[in-house]
Design goal:
The chain has 431 residues and is of the alpha/beta class. 36% of the residues lie in helices and 12% in strands. It is built from 13 helices and 13 strands. It binds pyridoxal-5'-phosphate.
């Protein structure tokens, strides 16, 4: 049987097994994590402010190391990426009556955190990097706009020079959602250090993980102090105020990280650069293998605003039509190269604003309808399924393949071979 016949048409698949799982830090868990967690248990010191053994807090050590690693003055560990966003927004003073511009392609938590802060998310288009389009900001500017939330989706940096310039020009704050891009950078500077606040996730699907967890970065001592107060409503009692700046207390919540998560986070942070290096190297190998065919067919990858800095967690090709993207993803998956398009009306996916039905209908947990119907809010977010048509078009035409750090060089070569095989076999007219 010919090697060229697609597996989807009954041919022999390029690989005899599916790709390895995509939990970069999660799959890297080893002896160091076990020892670190056991040490916390042996100490019986699970709470950062009460060390029974006298060992210093692992959470505090992580906060310091994380901030140093990323190049920020202050780091605050929290219980999730959503908590990091919520804490960052509250630190910035964003609340009732305010609007925050977010992209139409991001996990629903970006919007949920804005609503939890009792502000209104305004949904803008992405550009062909699949991150917030700086050219679509002006259109959404109102007297109520307070902040912009660029989201570095699938490891790729937003066009930060232009996002920051727009924010400065218009007196807006910037909170970066770095949940999918832990450790990635833009022109040599780590993501999460461009905005007033950077919010990270350490959830299991992210680059490094503590199962659930997150972190906030900022250079501003007042923002840090406000974040600290909010993330730990009991913090004043336990004497957690670490930066003596004159900020008055207000009621907070409990988004603290536990010492077990802190111990894990320290070990995972040590793995970060190796994970990034491996993903970048495997992705470069796949790219090099498919580039000639891509060029020949007139196809493009998603744009990367900094190809060297991206986390390289995924390879994303843009096809001429959504039908072709779906066909390509199906054919690749049959070759045991798991792939998907990034948007379909038929497949609910809370990474695309189109599918946020309960947000588009402004559902709220109480009947008063705050923050959408609120005496302090006189705007109209004008939500609809077709509010970001360019985003849906780009996502629908995208073919997405994970680049796991578990890929061997042989795996990477097979992915390259499989993509070339499918691109050559499918008869698409004309490119
Ligand atoms: C995962 C994710 C979040 C939320 O992080 P959690 O730790 O799951 O709360 C926020 N934004 C984006 C873009 C994400 O991918």
């Amino acid at each position: 049987m010919s090697r060229d016949k697609l597996a989807i048409d009954g041919g022999v698949p390029i690989r005899d097994q599916p790709l390895p799982p995509m939990y970069p830090g999660g799959m890297a868990i080893g002896e160091e994590e076990k020892q670190a967690v056991l040490a916390v248990l042996e100490d019986k010191s699970l709470f950062r402010y009460r060390s029974i053994s006298g060992s210093p807090s692992r959470v505090a050590a992580f906060e310091q190391k994380f901030a140093e690693h990323m190049g920020a003055r202050f780091g605050l560990a929290v219980s999730s990426g959503t908590a990091a966003l919520h804490t960052g927004l509250v630190a910035l003073g964003i609340g009732p009556g305010d609007e925050v511009i977010i992209p139409a392609y991001t996990f629903i938590a970006s919007a949920g955190a804005v609503i939890a802060a009792r502000a209104v998310p305004i949904i803008a288009e992405v550009d062909d990097s699949l991150t917030l389009d700086p050219d679509d900001l002006e259109r959404h500017l109102t007297p109520r706009t307070r902040a912009i939330m660029p989201v570095h989706m699938r490891g790729a940096p937003c066009d930060m020079d232009r996002v920051i310039a727009f924010a400065r020009r218009n007196g807006l704050r910037v909170i970066e959602d770095v949940a999918q891009a832990d450790g990635a950078s833009y022109h040599g500077q780590r993501l999460g250090t461009f905005g007033d606040v950077g919010a990270f996730s350490l959830q299991y699907h992210k680059v490094i993980t503590t199962g659930e967890g997150g972190a906030v970065l900022t250079d501003d001592p007042v923002l840090y102090e406000r974040a600290n107060i909010f993330h730990d409503g009991a913090g004043g009692f336990f004497g957690s105020r670490r930066q003596p700046v004159p900020v008055s207390f207000f009621p907070g919540l409990n988004y603290r990280m536990s010492e077990i998560a802190g111990a894990l986070a320290l070990v995972q942070l040590n793995r970060l650069e190796w994970l990034l290096r491996t993903m970048r190297s495997r992705k470069a190998r796949i790219r090099a293998a498919i580039e000639p065919t891509m060029r020949e067919k007139g196809l493009h990858f998603r744009r990367l605003h900094d190809p060297e800095g991206e986390a390289a967690v995924a390879l994303i090709l843009l096809m001429p039509t959504a039908g072709q993207a779906r066909e390509m993803a199906r054919a690749l998956t049959a070759e045991n190269i798991g792939a998907g398009s990034l948007f379909s009306e038929a497949i609910p996916d809370w990474h695309v604003a189109f599918h946020w039905k309960h947000i588009l209908t402004r559902a709220t947990p109480t009947a008063d309808g705050c923050p959408f119907r609120c005496p302090l809010y006189d705007g109209d977010p004008r939500y609809s399924e077709d509010m970001a048509p360019r985003t849906l078009d780009l996502l629908g035409r995208s073919v997405h393949v994970n680049v796991s750090p578990l890929l061997t060089e042989t795996d990477a070569d097979q992915i390259g071979e499989g993509i070339v095989k499918v691109l050559n076999a499918l008869r698409w007219q004309p490119f």
